[in-house]
Amino acid sequence: MSGMSSTPDDRRFVLTLGCPDRPGIIARITSFIADFGGSIVEAGYHSDLETGWFFTRQAIKAATVPFDLDELRERFTTVAADLGPETDWQVHDSGERRRAVLLVSKDGHCLHDLLGRAASGELPATIEAVIGNHPDLAGMTEAHGIKFHYIPFPKDPAERGPAFEQMRELVDAHDPHAVVLARFMQVLPAELCEHWAGKAINIHHSFLPSFVGARPYHQAFARGVKLIGATCHYVTAELDAGPILEQDVTRIDHADTVRDMVRQGRDIERVVLARGLRWHLEGRVLVHGRRTVVFE
Amino acid sequence: MSGMSSTPDDRRFVLTLGCPDRPGIIARITSFIADFGGSIVEAGYHSDLETGWFFTRQAIKAATVPFDLDELRERFTTVAADLGPETDWQVHDSGERRRAVLLVSKDGHCLHDLLGRAASGELPATIEAVIGNHPDLAGMTEAHGIKFHYIPFPKDPAERGPAFEQMRELVDAHDPHAVVLARFMQVLPAELCEHWAGKAINIHHSFLPSFVGARPYHQAFARGVKLIGATCHYVTAELDAGPILEQDVTRIDHADTVRDMVRQGRDIERVVLARGLRWHLEGRVLVHGRRTVVFE
Amino acid sequence: MSGMSSTPDDRRFVLTLGCPDRPGIIARITSFIADFGGSIVEAGYHSDLETGWFFTRQAIKAATVPFDLDELRERFTTVAADLGPETDWQVHDSGERRRAVLLVSKDGHCLHDLLGRAASGELPATIEAVIGNHPDLAGMTEAHGIKFHYIPFPKDPAERGPAFEQMRELVDAHDPHAVVLARFMQVLPAELCEHWAGKAINIHHSFLPSFVGARPYHQAFARGVKLIGATCHYVTAELDAGPILEQDVTRIDHADTVRDMVRQGRDIERVVLARGLRWHLEGRVLVHGRRTVVFE
Amino acid sequence: MSGMSSTPDDRRFVLTLGCPDRPGIIARITSFIADFGGSIVEAGYHSDLETGWFFTRQAIKAATVPFDLDELRERFTTVAADLGPETDWQVHDSGERRRAVLLVSKDGHCLHDLLGRAASGELPATIEAVIGNHPDLAGMTEAHGIKFHYIPFPKDPAERGPAFEQMRELVDAHDPHAVVLARFMQVLPAELCEHWAGKAINIHHSFLPSFVGARPYHQAFARGVKLIGATCHYVTAELDAGPILEQDVTRIDHADTVRDMVRQGRDIERVVLARGLRWHLEGRVLVHGRRTVVFE
């Protein structure tokens, strides 16, 4: 498993930035980095011709930066100011382990998969806690030494306010970089969507925008599609309509029942969620309106 | 190219059948075939557990059938009667070349692809004629020795009745097994959908049911999906809602403009249409409600 | 999870058969089934034109069979005799849980995945035991309540005979339907390949026949391929050359290091092994020479 | 089709460069561009950690460059010199149509596809001529107004020298950017491989390195693989071993005969060749040893 664990030499300061496009931005940023001898090990750039917006992600080898993260941020402030007041940027240290909290219900395949990835060092985050509206997955979680919180949800959606409030407090106590709805199956209230905007990530078991909402495999069966899919997206107040991080599909045919689709779909859901979540945690995803720029 | 052309030995009588499921159907049909010494070279069966319907496709080596197609049909009538009054079946001779008529507009990539497949013996049909509501593709068509009919369409949809009527007559004159909307871009009137039911085939440039209607690549761009697709379906009165024969997708990313999607989408459209059309022509597709059984 | 567990009504007697092809086989078999009122819920047929061999798999609803498995076997003997002395067939009861033993080394992603599938009822087998030539995966295994056996392997391959002998005894004690090399990373001695022929299944981390042997991702990197893959195959004495059950690939590009390939490859390995193993356990795979017929 | 044709505004000067990696390269190059007000509309960077080599491709909006291509080249010479003597770079004008010559044999599917793409403006090159060692594809070529040269090849490979010499002269007369072996099926002599190094592109009908050489679909059938593929690669003296531009695969199963594979494989061959060729023509491919960097 050692091949996966990071060595000190892998440590990077990762800059992500979006701003209105104009000539000279890349030169400005990379000259700033070159001036202190920084070595860029990974660089992504995107000029969106439709919106006139520019995006970049730069991974600088930490060992080549002669000061710490705070000073890097401080120094970069001047560059960002030059790029205009709309500039949106951040720098993070890849050596600082990120934190995720998982929300689950009864279906354990995504949870099991993420626990396995975390255990083998494949997930660039620690799973701080798992919260379920059913107790079914407590055992699986605790076997990995992770705390499971069971919050029963009232049948009547109108009475779920306190349960969501409790969930919010439990989640926020970990100050997580990602709140993962790992087949949570509950619609978050609008204020929670707003509160966790940009870090709540859902896996929906269809190729969105097809088959929004409940029982997408049943919808897919009824429509007679020849491929089924899964979509990893940021959670927003509009159901299944947030910016998409990743999608994939798998082929089915007439002989596949809904149950077969459920089984085959799980293989897609696991991988799509894991990929989207990893990209999010590594600062590879920049959101712009309803679209995402993903520097894989 | 010789590898593609059929030899006399390849000739098959192809039986397709759908009926309410019950024990003994396969035995009844295959005993009928075995009794005259017929050799089944390809057999597909499907029991649809949801609808309780049974489907089969059997390709019998023609050289092992001691009588002609008409007598085979005549004899099979008794079997079909035993399977109940709802039984829907047909037998065709793979040695009898099938006929297709193509409807086009300005975009030539699907037409060009089908012309090439026909020329190289890959399409199990002759292209009898091509009809366009623009004259642009006349040259490409005629270079293959195929008649092109140009029918100008009035701007006002309300005035297109005579144009559609002329199209209907031109098409029907060939008594085609398939009427292919090869990026025709016009919505057929309900009565034509009805008239050509089960043989009018469209290629839609999205992964249906996502992005019904006009400019699906623009819709896909706006939604920020990570895969784009194409769908080959039977034409019905409800727009882009007919039974699906085939679908496929290709991966895109944030750097792809609508123009890039159009280009990449064409590679999917060509292949999806060609596959769906071939299956239709070879009697591999059985329609049941909104779903298709495809014996590949 | 209940959607995955089988109900009594799902129980099937599954017949698989291979024999020299000739007219009338399907009629003979299906008449036999129809005669006792058996309902065929899934049927696959394949006539191999190259080898002149016929293959079939029939899943008969157990509730429609008026006698038990032994009597079904007994009665079918007469049919099989009619199909010739080379006929190879078996019948199994889907209600009878199958047994698997897993061989592992240090890499836990395939083991973890199979444990999760078994726990959620997705694997049509119980995992009887896990045997490792390293102790690393004992904890993961035992957390699922499954016995882990650690067999240290001498460095010198010439001295591994006793270790393999011990492994053989441990495995055979469970009389398993499948012996799964879940990234076991050791070449089985020829006599074990022979002894477990048709039930030892390996996952190789390349798209065979490319990159046989050690460190296939390094080989793939050096060759500059644009897709990497994984292959699930039966183990035979010739390294990585056994009949293939399943393969799949994923796209990479120039920016992917060997470490990236290892990570992305794991997602393929997991799924390819799980699919191949499930098909094997459900009696969907018939081997003929170096090729497999898979009735998905 | 107009969506595909480039407008003056689309014109770009495209810089591609490879050199030993060290800090400051991106800053050096982009500052050079920023200094004259150049707008970078597409930028790709790759630091190869294994070889310590750096690669970039920058597409600069031509309208923002205040001098012509020659002066841009002249000015950039200084920058390149700063990056070290091993630096390999070029600049081309996307507005200058590129030239391709196609080599064919009897199989017309790749030729037909490329002719269609050229006709619809999808291929960023003009097809200057087609040369065949059989006359079969003359008609298809000439229907597109393109000159076809038939060069008969002696049966005895030892006697083919003059034919290859004639081919070389015909090809070189067009000074092409790409010499495309569109299912040419002949092994080029080593001196021609050398002569056309970096511009001769082949499509091989297998997923290399599997099934090198003749009749790859027969090899694939015999091995029982579950996916077949195609590979677009630069031609080198070692057979089917040149740097790979693109690959793709399609799923097959036991029911597919070699003839089915040939048919399905063609759909992959067409697309893989078209993609690889387009990337080559647009200066998106940088070769380093046996690997390619492809800035899609």
Automatic annotation (TrEMBL), chains A, B, C, D:
Pfam families (alphabetical): ACT, Formyl_trans_N
Question: What positions constitute the catalytic site?
Answer: D240
Q: What is its EC number?
A: 3.5.1.10
UniProt-recorded Gene Ontology molecular function terms: formyltetrahydrofolate deformylase activity
Kindly tell me the pathway this chain contributes to: Purine metabolism; IMP biosynthesis via de novo pathway; formate from 10-formyl-5,6,7,8-tetrahydrofolate: step 1/1
Q: What the protein does?
A: Catalyzes the hydrolysis of 10-formyltetrahydrofolate (formyl-FH4) to formate and tetrahydrofolate (FH4).
Q: Could you identify this protein by its name?
A: Formyltetrahydrofolate deformylase
* Gene designation: purU
